[in-house]
Design a protein that fits this description.
By secondary structure, the chain is α/β, with parallel strands linked by helices. The protein contains six helices and eleven strands. 33% of the residues lie in helices and 22% in strands. Helix 1 packs parallel to helix 5.
Length: 184
């Protein structure tokens, strides 16, 4: 069974966190929710989530990938966490999946140099937050090697199905999408 970490910090965008948690679990992926500084994290719209563990407790070897929701100040809080940054960089260096949505591609991945030389997307208006070495696209979801990026709350389902397809294949992603009435 594939295993994914989803990193949350206070101020995360709830749709961008809960949608991948739900879709990935429906697809048979084990999802571990990891919190920055605490295991009780509050989203940008007041929804509280109890995490499974703190980021500093995670071991890169235990995971097949990491998902980083956006939202403000959630993405900023993740970007300021040295532990989260080291975990995300190690996942990337080990050729594991690194997926980020909304403000997180520009505020979390770009400063870690993960997007240098890659195509990426993110929340409109944050283009100037990317490094000059990133090819910014306007697609809802962009896949470049082991990195998946997406625009924001309205693309959370597309993002989640892309992550599921990357981990479990197209048939599994389509099966889950069909069962949830995203496709017929």
């Amino acid at each position: 069974m594939k295993k994914i970490a989803i990193i949350l910090a206070n101020g995360f965008e709830e749709i961008e966190a809960v949608t991948p948690i739900d879709i990935l679990r429906r697809g048979g992926v084990e999802v571990i929710i990891a919190g920055i500084r605490d295991i009780n994290i509050t989203g940008s719209h007041g929804i509280r989530i109890e995490c499974d563990m703190a980021v500093h407790q995670m071991n890169v070897a235990d995971f097949d990938g990491v998902v980083i929701p956006g939202g403000l100040p959630g993405a900023t809080n993740i970007s300021e966490s040295e532990e989260a940054g080291e975990f995300i960089k190690s996942m990337y260096q080990d050729k594991k999946l690194v997926a980020a949505i909304c403000a997180s591609p520009s505020l979390v991945l770009s400063p870690l140099n993960i997007l240098d030389g890659k195509k990426s997307t993110g929340y409109p208006g944050f283009e100037n937050k990317f490094s000059n070495f990133v090819e910014i696209k306007t697609d809802n979801v962009v896949i470049d090697g082991n990195v998946i990026t997406s625009k924001g709350p309205g693309t959370a389902a597309d993002f989640s199905f892309a992550v599921l397809e990357y981990l479990e294949g197209k048939d599994k992603a389509e099966s889950v999408a069909r069962s949830m009435l995203f496709i017929e």
